[in-house]
Amino acid sequence: EIPLRLVGSEMCIETDEDTLMWLHDTGLIRRIYRVRKPDVPLKAYEDLQSFKVFLLDVGLLRVMSGLSPKVFIEGSRIFEEFKGALTEQYVLQELSLFPQLNANYYWTSDANAEVDFLFSDGLYAYPLEAKAGNNVHAKSLKVYDKEYNPQLLFV
User: Mind listing the pLDDT tens digit for each residue in 19-36?
Assistant: First the structure.
């Protein structure tokens, strides 16, 4: 069993590097690396020491976290607490359908801004902020936009 815990709005896996490597090699998880600079090619700026771990799909996350399917169908207080992690998981799952986008990265500022995903078409890096619900004020995306002025922003 792999222990999960909620940190802020993100689900975290508590395990050792060997287990993470095994899970990655089997395709059950994906590592999303922080980039030091959101520029093309993103791989050139990845920080291999800073990464997020995502499961293969949102259903697996639901089962491993012990959430009932009723949480999704009926909604509940529990869903409110987990919706950020579940939404990020779902967005990455959908981005994975387009491997040419290479959506294996995220960005953080020197302060506390964080853009959930960065992807690239080989010419430009595009930031994507995953939001769950009606409040789509993407403060971190505004910080990113001010600093880097990308071609497009996605929320």
Answer: 888 888 988 889 999 999
- Listed in sequence order, the residues at least 6 apart from 21 whose beta carbon sits closer than 8 Å to its beta carbon are none
Cα–Cα distances in angstroms (integers) from residue 9 to residues 48, 79, 85, in the given order: 22, 11, 6
Is the CA virtual torsion 56, 61, 64, 70 positive or negative?
A: negative
End-to-end CA distance of the chain: 34
Residue 30 CB neighbours (<10 A): 20
Tell me the whole-structure pTM to 2 decimals: 0.82
In sequence order, which ranges of 29-151 are alpha helices (DSSP H)?
Answer: 58-65, 70-74, 77-95, 139-148
Closest CA to 129 of 120, 143, 145, 140: 140
Burial of residue 106, with CB atoms counted within 10 A of its CB: 0-12 exposed, 13-18 middle, 19 or more buried: buried
The segment with the largest mean pLDDT, out of 4-13, 26-35, 56-65, is 26-35
Report which of 43, 3, 7, 9 is spatially closest to residue 23, judged by C-alpha positions: 3
> 71-98, pLDDT tens digit by residue?
777 766 666 777 888 889 999 999 999 9
